Fold:
Amino acid sequence: MRMLKTALAAAIAGLVAISPALAQEGLTDEIRQPTLDALAGKKVIFVPMSMSFDLPEGWAAVMRKEADRLGYKLDIRDANWSTDTGTRAITQAITEKPDILVVQNFDVASYARTLKRAEEAGIKVVQVNMKSSYQTDAFVGADWYGIGQYAANRMVEKCGKGAGKSGKIALIQGPATAAASVYQLSAISQTLKDSKDIEIVSSQTGDWDQSKARGIAQTVIQQNPDLCGIIGFWDVMDAGTGAAIAESGKDIYLITSGGGNKTACQGVENGTFNEVISYDVPGQGRDLNNTIKILLQSPAAAGEMKFALYTPNKIISKDTLTTDSCWDLDLLKR
Structure:
């Protein structure tokens, strides 16, 4: 006990001695400058599916602000809705040897070999929101399985026997090989496989096209007058689905998902959507920035690190809607 008291007294005396110096000079953060040095002057290339819609625009806005703040360069190479253009952009990027390559895949297959080539060339690769079958250093994006699982369970609640409904639902997917389609479909199928309450009467691809989704929904509603619900795979496309439901005059529960921009909240407010499962683009932008910073500081070689940051799902409905439920691109760019 005497030794403990002596040690404590010595420690307290030391703190008392140091305190005046701390009060005058503070402490140096030894890791701050090495961190900043590891980021400054680096190059990041972003290859989105297209810069013509909200998701890549939002990610780019958040990434650009951080790049400007920390002194690294962000270049954008727009694939403009073409896998061929995107493949050429990635191939060109490989010759330029950026430090980081950020890619939004069209589907699980088209870029797989090219992404592997990028890592073999020493470039660290981040995939955003839409996975390839080839796992690169990092994935940042939506938990598609979790989204599908949630939507399926909600259909059981809203359309099952317990709700006194027909149990009939329809699915309107994106392209059949898109990550958003294959993982959601897997989750919905597995969640409902033992359910006697729900019958999937239609499962078709809307190909991210609003007009196509509207046409599919119109036909399915005509063929199934007692249809209870629809799970759509993207809110921009499902504006068409909602329009078909409104035209029918029927009470059909529509769940969709998206990046959570202001049009999603407007769709909930005006009744186009019953629920939007938001994967929160500003939050994804922050996760992208953090992933870029981790990879730039890491001594690991390209392809050595394999990790994922899945976005927490945020449910937007009339019950949960608040003034900050959604984001505005103009404000995000400021």
The longest strand covers residues 199-205. The two ends are 61 Å apart (CA to CA). DSSP finds twelve helices and twelve strands in the chain.
